[in-house]
Design a protein that fits this description.
The complex is a heterodimer of chains A (402) and B (118). Chain A is built from 15 helices and nine strands. By secondary structure, chain A is α/β, with parallel strands linked by helices. Chain A has one domain (1-402): Vaccinia Virus protein VP39 (Rossmann fold). Chain A is globular. Chain A starts with a helix and ends with a strand. The model of chain A is unreliable at 1-51 (pLDDT under 50). Chain B has a domain at 24-102. Chain B is 55% helix and 3% strand. In chain B, α1 (29-62) runs antiparallel to α3 (76-94). The longest helix of chain B has 34 residues, at 29-62. Classes of the chains: A alpha/beta (402), B mainly alpha (118).
């Protein structure tokens, strides 16, 4: 029996979900209250079910299974496989808590029956879940297209699509094994939305994604002078952070940008459903096209570990350019630098696993760098001592000097 | 560039496929395919069980007894339709077994080079 509280209390090295479970140093100070908040949200009567908006009961049933299987895999099975990994490393004379080169050991680890079954079953479930979502939602394509088109006809001034977007290669990967990735499937927003719901169902026993990201929005620091007229969500994905920011700052113009057209369309459509006056635009965060000093606040949620290092540098520089003096940049992502967990043989294995079977292409490159230092280098005044936006994340406050 | 489907603007571009499902973790790729098959089977079985629970709840609300369900005989049209669905079910569950011979690398395309990088 999976005990959901175990999920919230173990600092699993979770192969696929470091963003949610990363045992960063900042977490320690806030662990209790954040866990309490998560548990409260999980019990919330307003929490949406993963089955919401599924095409039919059969798809909902299959996805319910995959959520349960995923919960078992990253909880009970991960405990067993982590213990086995410990044993394998010790048999080889390697301290599991030491930072060592794992490459010579990878084949042997992978060949162990427990480790092989853990990786194989996780991969099979992920493949079936994402593939099943894509196929099932595709059967309802006309309905979803009609929804997006109706929203665009109703509020054309709140969406901007760029048919001539020069798509960089780093954005084309099938992250998390989502077929077509964010850019290649016209229903990518729907697929990603449901995948997120399933993931939260697996992790927390309830789909608290909207609420958790609203917490992130509430954690975004505001400029000292209090002026917040224009807010930007960089890499908005399914739009949730932008929604949270609009709910928190109803008088501000809130814009979400994403390089993927399908994600922008879904975000816009759901904003209309939620009655939120946000604008969504298909723009590259490296080169947004906005004027200098335009925004008062810029935030992001898990953007940077899904783009390459050069793009991260460019995005930081762009954020600095379009943020007004005194404005705040608040990127939320995996913990790096001083906030990062200690690198050990075990964490390296699960990180490798995340790359190998979850196709987190850029995670290693992101976590290998000190994100706070990169922001300082770009000219920001950085505070990395704030408690994380929500438990398990890394977040820094970067202020553009006045 | 965006593509069009049925004269609809998709706003998509080419993606980079990652066929990691063909990765092999066991001595014989058929074992990997079997594991995937078992996971798929679980999905189908649970989905069916869940649907039955839904149906029983709805029927109970409507005052229909379980005896009537047990004695039901499907129509010819239903038999035909159910066979089609059964065959789709079999393909979903056992389709991965057909892919056993396609495994090519240990971690999937592109991953071997990563391993060389340390």
């Amino acid at each position: 029996m999976i005990n959901r509280r175990t999920v919230l209390s173990t600092a699993a090295y979770s192969s696929a979900f470091a963003w949610l479970f990363g045992s960063n140093k900042a977490k320690a100070a806030s662990e209790v209250s954040e866990k309490t908040q998560a548990a409260t949200l999980a019990k919330s009567g307003s929490a949406k079910k993963a089955a919401e908006l599924m095409p039919n009961a059969d798809v909902a049933g299959r996805m319910d299974f995959h959520a349960g299987f995923l919960g078992w895999s990253i909880n009970d099975f991960e405990k067993v496989s982590s213990a086995r990994l410990d044993g394998l490393l010790r048999e080889k004379g390697v301290d599991p808590d030491a930072d060592v080169d794992l490459i010579p050991l990878l084949d042997e680890i992978r060949s162990d029956p427990v480790m092989a079954m853990r990786m194989r079953t996780w991969l099979s479930n992920q493949h079936l879940m994402l593939g099943g979502l894509e196929a099932s939602l595709g059967l309802e394509a006309d309905r979803y297209f009609a929804e997006m088109e109706a929203a665009e006809a109703q509020y054309p001034d709140r969406i901007e699509l760029n048919p001539n977007m020069n798509m960089p290669a780093y954005a084309k990967h099938e992250i998390h094994l989502q077929k077509g990735g964010y850019v290649g499937n016209p229903l990518a927003g729907y697929v990603n939305y449901h995948y997120g719901n399933i993931l939260y169902e697996a992790l927390f026993g309830s789909n608290i994604q909207d609420q958790r990201i609203a917490q992130m929005a509430n954690a975004v620091p505001l400029p000292d002078d209090g002026k917040v007229e224009r807010v930007l969500d960089m890499g908005c994905g399914t739009g949730r952070l932008a929604y949270g920011l609009k709910n928190r700052l109803p008088d501000a113009d809130v814009t979400g940008i994403d390089i993927a057209g399908p994600m922008v369309r879904f975000s816009h459509k759901r904003a209309i459903d939620l009655g939120l006056d946000c604008t969504f635009a298909q723009r590259n965060a490296e080169d947004t096209g906005y004027p200098d000093n335009h925004f008062d606040v810029i935030a992001s949620n898990i953007l940077h570990h899904e783009i390459d290092a050069a793009a991260t540098d460019n995005v930081i520089a762009e954020a600095f350019r379009i943020l007004r003096p005194g404005g705040v940049f608040y990127p939320i992502d995996h913990a790096t630098g001083k906030q990062a967990p200690k690198t050990t043989a075990k964490t390296k294995f699960w990180a490798f696993n995340d790359r190998a079977i979850n196709n987190e292409v850029w995670r290693d490159a992101f976590e290998a760098r000190d994100f706070a230092a990169l922001n300082r280098k770009a000219g920001f005044v950085v505070d990395e001592t704030l408690r994380p936006a929500v438990w398990g994340t890394g977040s820094i406050k970067a202020v553009k000097p006045a | 560039m965006p593509t069009k489907d049925n004269n609809r603007e998709n706003h998509t571009t080419d993606s980079l496929a990652y066929e990691v499902e063909r990765a092999v973790f066991f001595d014989h790729p058929a074992m990997d395919a079997l594991v995937t098959s078992f996971v798929a089977m679980g999905s189908e079985v649970w989905s069916a069980q869940r649907r039955i629970k839904v149906l029983e709840s709805v029927l109970k609300e409507q005052g229909v007894s379980l005896d009537k369900i047990n004695q039901y005989q499907p129509t010819d049209e239903e038999v035909t339709a159910w066979r089609t669905e059964r065959d789709q079910f079999i393909r979903r569950v056992y389709g991965s077994l057909e892919q056993s011979g396609k495994a090519q690398t240990k971690y999937g395309p592109g991953m071997d080079s990563l391993r060389q990088e340390g």
